[in-house]
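Write out the bound-state structure for FE2/S2 (inorganic) cluster.
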Amino acid sequence: MAGLNVSEYHDAQPDSTMSDLFLQADKGQEMKLTINGTPRSCDYPTHALAVFALRNDLDLKGVRMGCGDGHCGACTILVDGVPTTSCDLPFGALEGKQVTTPEGVGTVAHPHPVQAAVLAEQPGQCGFCLSGILMRSVALVDSGKHLTETDVRAALDKHLCRCGSQPRIIKAVMAALKEVHSA
Ligand code: FES
Ligand code: FES
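---
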């Protein structure tokens, strides 16, 4: 792949994805991980970015790509239950880990309390930030801790929302926490 930059690569192969670039550069070694509760065996290059492997190769489109530089939080997934940005994470770092993406949270029939609150409150506008915020909020609610609004604001501070929907998003997360702790 030396001598071919990304735009030249796409001009030459317009149907290719960014992860194809990595895949063709270096076939990876087999690695095992668990994604949304299912054991998987993958042979993607370990240096490929996790966000591309998850979205493009494993078809988990719930993982969003925003800034691509670890600043906005849109690409957040859970790695062994810990909120982690996937746009700056080598795929190889997921070896042996339990990975959760938005697809692995709740179901239509039984949404997670955060999903139920988001459905009820409809806090988003464009909704682009919500995948990442969902994942961090799920980790917050599942921690079982009694959190104040100040705690939630601090935890979600890393997540950017260009639509300015933060007040309604925080209201939804607080509703989820209230629901869980009153059950
Ligand atoms: S896309 Fe990963 S932090 Fe913005
Ligand atoms: S609702 Fe649009 S970026 Fe948050």
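---
The chain has two domains: 6-104, 113-182.
Residues 3 and 126 are 38 Å apart (CA to CA).
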